[in-house]
């Protein structure tokens, strides 16, 4: 059975990057032998990947384990920001914001945000389903 993936904090990745830059001579694979003596169980490929992403890792926060930007992009993209603004404006006017209203506005924004050429080249069905609304509400 293969070993499970072990997540590593950015502070430890930062420590390895600093060692590679100073004592490792900029060669990430040299770090495997050095840190294996310190009981780190990380492959040379892991060090190479950290070295490749070093700018993002050095800019990241220390207690996190993953970098920002992973995962699927929202279907609506920038139209989600418009939808959030519509919701805030409606709430400021003390009007109810229901899940059905959010779904209707999302469908309308999706239709208006795409041109006919985009729709013909990359047809995407967007239904604003109940799970999508739940995830949207958690994101915003």
Automatic annotation (TrEMBL):
Stretches assigned to the HTH CENPB-type domain: 78-140
Coiled-coil boundaries: none
GO molecular function, one term: DNA binding
Entry-linked Gene3D superfamilies: Homeodomain-like
Record flagged with keyword DNA-binding: yes
Keyword tags: DNA-binding
InterPro entries assigned to the protein according to its UniProt record, in alphabetical order: HTH_CenpB_DNA-bd_dom (IPR006600)
Pfam families assigned to the protein according to its UniProt record, in alphabetical order: HTH_Tnp_Tc5
Name recorded for this polypeptide: HTH CENPB-type domain-containing protein
Lineage: Eukaryota, Sar, Stramenopiles, Oomycota, Peronosporomycetes
